[in-house]
Design goal:
It is a single chain. The protein is an alpha/beta fold. It is 37% helix and 15% strand. It has a single domain (23-191), classed as ANL, N-terminal domain (Rossmann fold, 3-Layer(aba) Sandwich). It has helices spanning 26-37, 52-68, 85-96, 110-120, 132-139, 164-170, 173-178, 193-196, and strands spanning 41-45, 48-51, 76-79, 100-103, 122-128, 146-150, 162-163. The strands form two sheets. A five-stranded parallel sheet has the order 4-3-5-6-7, sandwiched between helices. A two-stranded antiparallel ribbon has the order 1-2. Helix 2 (52-68) packs across helix 3 and helix 4 (110-120) packs across helix 5 (132-139).
Length: 209
Amino acid sequence: MTKNKPWLAHYDEGVPKDIDIPNISLVDLFRSAVQEYGNQVCTVCGSECYTYERIDDLSDRFARYLLANGLQKGDRVGILLPNTTEFVISYYGILKAGGIVMALNPAYRPPEIENLALESGIRFLVLPEILYQENQIIQKNTRIERFILTGSGDVPVSKKDILWDQLMEEFAKEKLLLLNFQPMPQQFFNIQAEQLEHQSVLLVYTATW
């Protein structure tokens, strides 16, 4: 076997040469990690550490926002972010809501983003606030309906767009439960992959160290 696959000879002791890839969604895989490692650290970004439970909660909020604003199963949501906690939260929130993640290189310039948005049909785009104005210019040429802005939150946004902190506050489960002017559908409170029939099949083996 090592003759045809010479890299196997360099595997550390105990690392299997073959693995079984379960036929489950990434959301289900993540939820199992939340159940097992809930209060342990999931992401570290600079000085900020987030537990699995925290990422689960915040990604639920993101999913509620998408569903409340008309996301349909299979809709594309773009993430124009570097490797940050917001990327992870957005990623799982999109999957929980039944959307398809379009991860874009944050170094792309507006013309490149415009072409990719047109080809993929992106409806929502998550991006740093410093890139907001230049991407507003291309919006009219794409299907992008709403921007979600990460950062300090000091920039003015149009009526349809939203700041990250505002989204996280408004779509917290506890706050939604206090709203009594309009009943909220149950799906906004309990985001379940099986309810949305969304299957992002696990293609990459994830190890927990």
